[in-house]
Amino acid sequence: MLQMTNVEVYYGSVRALDSVTLHVDEGELVTLIGSNGAGKSTVLKTVSGLTSPRVGTIEFLNQRIDDMSPTEIVRLGIVHCPEGRRVFPDMTVGENLDMGAYTRSDTDDIATDRDRLLERFPILHGRQHQRAGDLSGGQQQMLAIARAVLAQPRLLMLDEPSLGLAPILVEQVADIIRELHASGTTILLNEQNAEMALRLADRTYVLETGRVTLEGASEDLLQNEHVRKSYLGD
């Protein structure tokens, strides 16, 4: 479904991604783990067109997308739920959800999907007329994920969804990601909670200073000595 090949990205003279090659197959949940500054968020921003690669190619459904605009990429079905939630604070919860469906024209189906989402995210159900900026951090994260799901992604990219959340909310986010994957959504996950990410994902890429240094089945990397010492605190 998604293929990055030898991608290099620079911020000025600083190389943020160094010959990164990775793929995500349809129906998979693939995660990126690594320390802060390893390039995980840059991978997602590059796929979604927010950052342009200087070298390499990116293909989605066998179509080159590395020269497309973010709007064109969204219309292909790649939806990016960014780090820091990025809800529209002065808009209501309901208006934020409406923004998730802005590329859709199937009005009746949007209403049905919205009702189903509010069942899946009951914490939002009674807050549709509340300013998104007045929600707690956990509620904003749920809103950001719900907004992304309403866009009907072919590929859903989640950037640090558990960042800054209390442990009980981290578990709720993990359950939602697990449920989305089980329902057939293809997911590329960047997650600072490495143990959670490894237990959720089918496959994992380890990034260090902009390079992929390890890749494989998540259950295998959970037992990898380097991963355990560097990212799991063993």
From TrEMBL:
Q: Which PANTHER family match?
A: HIGH-AFFINITY BRANCHED-CHAIN AMINO ACID TRANSPORT ATP-BINDING PROTEIN LIVF
Q: Which SUPFAM superfamilies match?
A: P-loop containing nucleoside triphosphate hydrolases
Tell me where the signal peptide lies. none
Indicate the segments forming the ABC transporter domain, all copies: 2-234
What are the record keywords, sorted? Amino-acid transport, ATP-binding, Nucleotide-binding, Transport
Its Gene Ontology molecular function terms?
ATP binding; ATP hydrolysis activity; branched-chain amino acid transmembrane transporter activity
What is the name of this protein? Answer: ABC transporter domain-containing protein
Q: Which family does it belong to?
A: Belongs to the ABC transporter superfamily.
Record GO biological process: L-amino acid transport
